[in-house]
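User: I'm curious whether this sequence folds into something compact or stays loose and floppy. Could you predict its structure so I can see for myself?
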Amino acid sequence: MLTQHGRAVKKWLSEHPKVQAYVSRDEYEVLKELAEGMHMSISELVKRAISNLKELKEKVYEEGFNKGFESGFGEGEEATMFDIARGGLRC
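Assistant: Here's the prediction. I'll summarize afterward.
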């Protein structure tokens, strides 16, 4: 029978899957130096990097979509959903 603490640990482990990756010694040293320089663990560094990459991806996608959309249409032109789907105005 599990204690209350044991149940809490089991629940935490089920909600936080373990991720393991093999890296070269050089890659490990880079991670270690970066983490130490930022006063955090390698685990925290990787988690923050993942979060930052997700935010960056969303920002780049949004900016790219807006620039692409704006470059395809002149001032005063209107686009239909068909135009957007094909990537430009109908001729």
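Summary: The first helix runs from residue 4 to 15. The radius of gyration is 24 Å.
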